[in-house]
Amino acid sequence: MRQFTVGIPVFNGMPYLPESLESILRQTYADFEILVINDGSTDDSLEYLKSVRDPRLRILSQQNQGLTATLNRMLQEARTPWLVRQDADDVSYPQRLARIAHSAGGHPEAGMFYSLADYHPGSSVGQFRSSKGTPEELREIVRSGYLLSICHPSVTLNVEKARALGGYRFDLHVEDIDLWWRMALHHDIRFIPEATIGLRQNQQSVSSVNLEDQALNTLYVQYLLLSHLWELEPLPIGAVRNPLARIVNVRKLRSKGHLRAFNMKWSLGNGAGALCEAAMAFASSPASLLRRLADEFASDRRITVGEAPKRFARFKNELWPADQGSQKAYVSLESEVCKERA
């Protein structure tokens, strides 16, 4: 029985889709299925896919439903124990599936695996900012109220366990980090300490186009985590958007946007434009830029996503109206507020 399905959601994947799919077909480990779900593409993606002659490739087409629905269908359609994620513009390195097979063989009880990820193409600078550690260390990050930083296309999911957790939730461009915290609290997340994939940055990507919304939505996911940890009832995102917007670190977000633009311009050979973006990243938030450089070069740093939980506690009356929460949880919130004032 095959152990791995490589799942690729596709919506208008050209011109990068051929490079992405061919990187899977060239794997040194060959016993797997490729499941591509064409989510209503209007370009030549489907024509290209139909031209590929490989018995391991299975193509499903649907009317456009968005990424979250497509990923959940992928979990339901997978016919193997493990689902290897890849996006239509990313590139798997030749040994990727071999590394995953080795790790899964040693830890069959794991909920998921993930690895480091280089930025792609090779002229780009640096790696995706990834949390690192043992399953216990990753779980402790989540229990402390922070989210995990994991490159989604580097992930391999235990299909049964991901389904049991409810799969992906929300069409908020943060469906991945919402699954990571739930997975970490219930199952082991295993880190493969090498880059197995090239992550493409481009101006049309979901992360680039929705940077500001993604930052606020990330805080909403952290709010859901804190609600779980503090035993409070969370509200829908529309009801807490205003207080969450006041928690967003705007200077850090601007710096992040300029750093992303720096890398894209550098990879295209626009050195002058890239250096200009780097200067604006520093001007927006020197501390954020220095922390990002430290994350890149210091292998033992604790890398997390989100803001300090005590910042949420400052808005406790708006985020968790008093008639919804338990007394035990509000004692915890008051403790966080006291830490902030200290």
Short description:
With about 350 residues, this protein is of the alpha/beta class. The protein has helices spanning about 15-25, 45-50, 65-75, 95-105, 135-145, 160-165, 175-185, 205-210, 210-230, 235-245, 250-265, 270-285, 285-295, 310-315, 315-320, 325-340, and strands at about 5-10, 35-40, 55-60, 80-85, 90, 110-120, 155-160, 190-200.
Please characterize this protein's 3D structure.
This protein has 342 residues and is α/β, with parallel strands linked by helices. The protein has two domains: 4-202, Spore Coat Polysaccharide Biosynthesis Protein SpsA, Chain A (Alpha-Beta Complex), CATH 3.90.550; 213-249 and 285-341, no CATH class. Helices cover 49% and strands 15% of the residues. It has helices spanning 17-25, 45-51, 67-77, 96-106, 135-143, 159-164, 175-186, 206-209, 211-229, 237-247, 250-267, 271-284, 286-297, 309-313, 316-319, 327-341; strands at residues 4-10, 33-39, 57-62, 82-85, 91-92, 112-120, 156-158, 189-200. Strand 2 (33-39), helix 2 and strand 3 (57-62) form a beta-alpha-beta unit. The longest helix has 19 residues, at 211-229. The chain is globular.
Instruction: Specify the number of helices.
Output: 16
CATH architectural label of the largest domain: Alpha-Beta Complex
Strand order of the largest sheet: 3-2-1-4-7-6-8-5
Report the order of strands and helices. EHEHEHEEHEHEHHEHHHHHHHHH
- Indicate the structural class: alpha/beta
Q: What is the overall shape? A: globular
Strand count, sense and closure of the main sheet?
8 strands, mixed
The total beta strand count reads 8
CATH superfamily of the largest domain: Spore Coat Polysaccharide Biosynthesis Protein SpsA, Chain A
CATH class of the largest domain: Alpha Beta
Q: How many domains make up the coordinates?
A: 2
Low-confidence stretches: none
Cα Rg: 20 Å
Average pLDDT confidence is 89
Query: What is the CATH fold-level name of the largest domain?
Result: Spore Coat Polysaccharide Biosynthesis Protein SpsA, Chain A
- What is the share of helical residues? 40-55%
Strand content: 5-15%
The end-to-end span amounts to 58 Å
